Inverse folding.
């Protein structure tokens, strides 16, 4: 009887673990492998979660994945003599959505949100945060920061 209970509990715990991860982790590993193969200048971080992409004066760090929530995050650092204008920042946000997350958020959704000003902003610690309206995802935020002749752009969105 105790052996039977042990087997049942172990099977239950395995099935619970498998059900906890609703997004296919193997599919994300495949995506990363394919991206790295197509973009020879990029490389995987030591922790295996982020891809770093050098592009001239810009360094992009890109990550995607999740288990219960699936998200995409893009960080960019760019050497510049002056901060981005809001329009230049919006162009970066649209470019990052198009390149790294079009399967979650349509480019048109973000363009429409920008054009209709369907976003809110918050300024904290010299960083401007933008919270966009994007019905395809649970949350979509981006931020802009300028310090020591470098602009920092952050874009993050996720689904449940």
């Amino acid at each position: 009887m105790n052996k039977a209970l042990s087997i049942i509990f172990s099977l239950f715990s395995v099935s619970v673990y498998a059900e906890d991860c609703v997004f296919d982790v193997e599919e994300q590993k495949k995506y990363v492998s394919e991206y790295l193969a197509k973009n020879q200048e990029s490389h995987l971080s030591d922790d295996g979660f982020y891809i770093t992409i050098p592009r001239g004066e810009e360094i992009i760090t890109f990550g995607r994945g999740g288990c219960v929530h699936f998200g995409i995050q893009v960080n960019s650092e760019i050497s510049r003599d002056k901060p981005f204008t809001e329009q230049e920042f919006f162009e970066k946000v649209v470019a990052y959505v198009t390149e790294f997350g079009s399967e979650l958020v349509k480019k048109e959704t973000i363009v429409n949100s920008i054009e209709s000003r369907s976003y809110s902003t918050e300024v904290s610690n010299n960083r401007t945060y933008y919270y966009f309206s994007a019905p395809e995802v649970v949350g979509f935020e981006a931020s802009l920061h300028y310090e020591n002749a470098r602009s920092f752009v952050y874009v993050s969105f996720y689904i449940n």
